[in-house]
Amino acid sequence: MHGEIQEIGKEFYLLRSDEKDFHRNIYIKRFVGPNGDSLNMIMDPGTPLDYPSLSKALKELIGGVKNIHIVFLSHQDPDVSSNIGAILASAPKALVFTSIDTWRLVKMYGIPEKRFKPIESFKKDLLKVKRTGHWIQFVPARYCHFRGAMMIYDHESRILFSGDFMAGVNTRKGPGIYANEESWEGISLFHQIYMPSKRAIQMTVDRINMLNPTPKVIAPQHGDIVKGQLLEDFLQRLASLDVGLDTEENIEAEKENLYVALSSFLEMLKLTYPDVHSSLMELLTSAGEFTTAFKIVGGSVMEIKLLPKTAINHFWKALKKASSPDLHEELGGLFANSLKSFGIEPPEETLPEGPEEEDTKDLTSELVDLDKLFG
Questions:
Q1: Is the separation of the CB atoms in 156 and 215 below 8 Å?
Q2: ∠ CA 58-61-66 to the nearest 5 degrees?
Q3: pLDDT per residue as tens digits for the range 138-185
Q4: Residue 373's pLDDT is what?
């Protein structure tokens, strides 16, 4: 995990892991009152792998782990919660705020029940921090991707910590922490695989849109931080995205055709470019920091976890990564032809450009000469 602490809003800080494919984001919020009183909250404190860097960052920010007052858990996955035992051992006054559904599982880490405060036990979802005068709000993210998933909204910074909602695989190129248009591919990939249905996403988007004041920033537990116009754009796209069961129910026949087309291409590639085939198979079947989008058995594609169009683009990017640039045009043509032979629209960048006008004239001239020879 990076040792660099980045402030993304007023007294709202990010510490992120340095994985190439799938960042983990840990957030710290300092509530500081007008009289100097403070309260410190950490959101999804990560894993034991993160603890050394996290401990160092917390010492710099708040004087050490011992000064944490609230640990907020969005859900129970070990990548967000498995540091909880070490945190509580070093912060004797800290309480865990999470849903009852999440508590039912994270208590397996041996957390004493007296240190757990169920979010459902608060009379209102909007709470005032008495010590400092700040306001926080709990926002359910039901079934995104867990029944008890929760988000938390800091009214001072207008940052919504969203847990796995709006999370994404790293598809944005270059350094930095903020999303751009390239981030959308990673967000859609993540949600297609891990979110159960479009309806669950729509309900969460509706809850976010009802917040007053509206968030300026969405800070997810994985991937890039979303702000500005992209925040509204990405929420709208998510609300209409087919995910999980939607992809299984609506396009199963389309996927079956794609299984055959991709398997056929892999067979051809193995015969003509065995080295590229070997590299491609390694990329497609290695989970790396995220997960495998394809299930391949015996050289044949048996399952796709993404929408067909997304899967095709993902496959093509892996093919380019597995081959040298001088082969991209040729392999693109082969891939496009293979897909078209099964009635599937190939990615636009795999299609060859049309001949220039003078080339067409030259070709016509040659055909006329041939006609004279054989006429």
A1: no
A2: 45
A3: 999 999 999 999 999 999 999 999 999 999 999 998 889 999 999 999
A4: 35
CA pseudo-torsion sign 259, 261, 266, 271: positive
Cα(57)–Cα(51) distance, rounded to whole angstroms? 10
DSSP H helical segments within the chain, as ranges?
51-62, 78-81, 84-90, 100-106, 183-194, 198-209, 229-239, 245-250, 252-272, 274-285, 308-322, 328-340, 357-374
What is the structure's pLDDT at 355? 44
The encoded tokens of residue 340 equal: 């078209």
Which pLDDT value is given to residue 369? 43
Determine phi and psi for 303, rounding to 5 degrees: -155, 145
pLDDT tens, position by position, 203-250: 999 999 999 999 999 999 999 999 999 999 999 999 999 998 887 666
Radius of gyration of the chain (CA): 25
Confidence of residue 370 (pLDDT cuts 50, 70, 90): very low
Question: How far are the Cα atoms of 69, 208, 252, 280 from residue 160, in angstroms, in the given order?
Answer: 19, 9, 35, 38
In sequence order, the β-bridge partners of residue 154 are 136, 159
pLDDT, residue 358, reads 41
d(C-alpha 349, C-alpha 113), whole Å: 56
Dihedrals φ, ψ of 352, to 5°?
-70, 150
What is the number of helices (H) and of strands (E) in the chain? Answer: 13, 15
Supply the pLDDT for residue 365.
41
Burial class (CB in 10 A: 0-12, 13-18, 19+), 321: exposed
Amino acid at 275: D
Kindly report the backbone phi and psi dihedral angles of residue 79, in degrees, each rounded to the nearest multiple of 5, phi listed first. -70, -15
Looking at residue 249, its pLDDT comes to 63
pTM (2 d.p.): 0.76
- The string of DSSP letters for 346-358 reads PPGGGSPPPPPHH
Q: Which helix or strand (DSSP H or E) is residue 161 part of?
A: strand 159-163
Residue type, 245: L
Whether the bond into 213 is cis, omega within 30 of 0 = yes
